[in-house]
Amino acid sequence: MKKTNLLALLGALTAMSWSATAQQTPAPKQTEAISIVGATAHLGNGQVIQQATLVFDQGQIIALGGPETPTQGQVISASGKHIYPGFITMGTSLGLIEVDAVKATDDQGDIGDMIPHVRSIIAYDAESKVVESMRPNGVLLAQVSPKGGMISGSSSVVQLDAWNWEDAAVKTDEGIHMSWPNPISQGRWWMGEDPGMKPNKNYSLQVDRLLQFIEEAKAYHQGGSATRNEPYEALKDLLAGEDAAYVAADSERQIIDAVQKLKAAGIQKVVIVGGREAYKVIPMLLENQVPVITQATHQLPFDADSDYDMPFKLPKILSDGGLVVAMHNMNEANHQNRNLPFYAGQLVGQGMNPEEALRVITQYPAKILGIDQSYGTLEVGKSATLFISQGDALDMRTNQIEHAFIDGRKISLETHQTELYQRYSGKYNQ
Q1: Distance between CA 1 and CA 89 in Å, rounded?
Q2: pLDDT score recorded for residue 267
Q3: In the chain, where the domains are located
Q4: DSSP states along 45-77
Q5: Mean pLDDT lowest for which of 96-110, 236-250, 263-277?
Q6: What's the longest Cα–Cα distance across the chain?
Q7: In this structure, which CATH number among 3.40.50.11540, 3.20.20.140, 3.40.50.720, 2.115.10.20 belongs to the domain 87-374?
Q8: Smallest Cα–Cα separation from 167: which of 127, 198, 203, 226?
Q9: In this predicted model, what pLDDT tens digit does every residue of 22-34 receive, in sequence order?
Q10: What is the pLDDT of residues 35-53, one digit of tens each?
């Protein structure tokens, strides 16, 4: 009898756990053409179409133009509203970590210092509550990347309405993530050292170790070793110029060393992540065609010598300098990725043209990720991954999304938060 009661209890707990974590059911495939008429279409490439008509079928945009454009199928009237391409958040741990304080839900990193063979995509939880909370603000795609170590592993691009990681995957293993050694270190106060900043005596050794690993991988692929080495295997596409190296580097010296030394080692595609002092080396970054993924704008000043508003204006400075710029949300809680459009809206407050600010979270991320043939802008032939907002999507006061589509599928905008809102609204309206 006791055993029966225990099994019943375990079954009840399992059911409760499932109901507590289950995501909204992913939307089915598009079955008929849909036309959106009368809205202002922000194409994501700097262009705007007033009184636009946008038609999509079987997941692709098949017509886009002014009010004279013929409609097909179901018609959605969006007069006075706005259409945007789905926003893309970069360098996130979405789906890899659910609760910071619960270790069992944390898959954003692995043990080891040189682990390029770790694939973030296979740990991605498509049913994460954090993932579903992105969609009501228009964040529909994400680069899911690993953390930790000198070489952390590979990132992948996912769409945020799926049953599992296989369904979610848009582009798998598109880049290798690295943390460039810091030439400055902080004293270990817990060991009696001065807690202040000082030169890192091991900087050259750490850089040499990273470059030596890359050279060993090159020799492995050139020599046809009989013994399989998974970490070296994982660098094959990077060394062939197909994948990008996403390099976390903030200081001027870090950025210069990372770009020059990796290029010299044969890495063709380098992307700087963070780039706090990237504004000091814009010509060098332009010469080497290196994009920068800056931190989110809602940050404190980087250090005591920084301008108080440098986090707010850095993306604009880099963009004005001619660089391809995107944004990520490295130093804040994972769920704050949903505020991506408002980080871009901050750039408008710094003087950036609104359509250029939009490109920072649409076209430019898609270009960096190599998915710009299908995503990032509203164009005929591209994926119908888009949404309709009542107002300016970069303004938290007016970004009220009514409809959202991923590959033409009309997705749910319900989340755990909206369910709680409806529940407790009913309580106080009794």
Answers
A1: 53
A2: 95
A3: 21-86+376-430, 87-374
A4: SS-EEEEEEEEEETTEEEEEESTTSPP-SEEEE
A5: 96-110
A6: 76
A7: 3.20.20.140
A8: 127
A9: 457 899 999 999 9
A10: 999 999 999 999 999 999 9
Q: Which residue reads 């375990």 in tokens? A: 10
- Percent of the chain at pLDDT > 90 equals 70
Contact call for residues 320 and 279 (beta carbons, < 8 A): no
Residue found under tokens 């902080």: 186
pLDDT class for 333, splitting at 50, 70, 90? low
Quickly count: other Cβ atoms within 10 Å of residue 299's Cβ: 18
21-86+376-430 classified as CATH 2.30.40.10: yes
Residue entry with tokens 């949300």: 329
- Burial letters for 259-277: b for 16+ Cβ neighbours within 10 Å, e otherwise? bebbeebebebbbbbbbbb
Tell me the two tokens of residue 359: 């490109």
Q: Which residues contact 208 (CB under 8 A, 6 or more apart)?
A: none
Q: Which residues contact 219 (CB under 8 A, 6 or more apart)?
A: none
97, 107 Cβ separation under 8 angstroms = yes
